[in-house]
Write a structure and sequence with these properties.
heterodimer, A: mainly beta, four-stranded antiparallel beta sheet, 53% strand, B: mainly beta, globular
């Protein structure tokens, strides 16, 4: 069974640009969640999608948005990039039926904003 | 508010020594608790989880964790550390509305 796939692996952007990250979950998983990881801050929850609907959202500005497609693949978009958006962005997939489930993580997209 | 605290940012142990990584949580109901490990350049991998039953939970790679409700803790332990255990470890709680809250992580260094 293929794992969670995130593309691209690395991204370099400049301030003010926008970026789209992609996540393909494990087959059969309907939940995809996104996290921002920075040194010293751990993983900060961005949002979670289940069957194309956003079920929960973290405390991030509206510049951060996402969506999920009918095949459960998900994208997240960050508009008007700021230097502070530099981070590792991780997505995780699961069945999405309860919060006692194991999350399966991708290797992440490392975003650098210059 | 729900939160997870990992008080140790860095821990260094010698190979073969025992290990304990601390985790404290704040959550109103019975929590679902997890430990994940992240190797450099990788995503997170589940080590173990607790959601009911026996408070001592066994996981992969020889790790175990004990849930102590009275102390709001879920500490991770390993009796003998191997050099390959060097990584970052994250404690997490499964909160309401399909949201998981992670601690800030503990980076483990293993001395040969």
């Amino acid at each position: 069974k293929a794992g969670v796939t995130q593309t691209p692996r690395y991204l370099i952007k400049t301030r003010g640009q926008q970026v789209t990250l992609s996540c393909s979950p494990i087959s059969g998983h309907r939940s995809v969640s996104w996290y921002q990881q920075t040194p010293g801050q751990g993983l900060q929850f961005l949002f979670e999608y289940f069957s194309e609907t956003q079920r929960n959202k973290g405390n991030f500005p509206g510049r951060f948005s996402g969506r999920q497609f009918s095949n459960s693949r998900s994208e997240m978009n960050v508009s008007t990039l700021e230097l502070g958006d530099s981070a590792l962005y991780l997505c995780a997939s699961s069945l999405g039926e309860a919060t006692n489930e194991k999350l399966f993580f991708g290797s992440g997209t490392q975003l650098s904003v210059l | 508010a729900q939160s997870v605290t990992q008080p140790d940012i860095h821990i260094t142990v010698s190979e073969g020594a025992s290990l304990e990584l601390r985790c404290n949580y704040s959550y109103g109901a019975t929590p679902y608790l997890f430990w994940y490990v992240q190797s450099p350049g990788q995503g997170l991998q589940l080590l173990l989880k607790y959601f009911s039953g026996d408070t001592l939970v066994q996981g992969i790679k020889g790790f175990e964790a004990e849930f102590k409700r009275s102390q709001s803790s879920f500490n991770l332990r390993k009796p003998s550390v191997h050099w390959s255990d060097a990584a970052e470890y994250f404690c997490a709680v499964g909160a309401w509305s399909y949201k998981y809250i992670f601690g800030t992580g503990t980076r483990l260094k293993v001395l040969a």
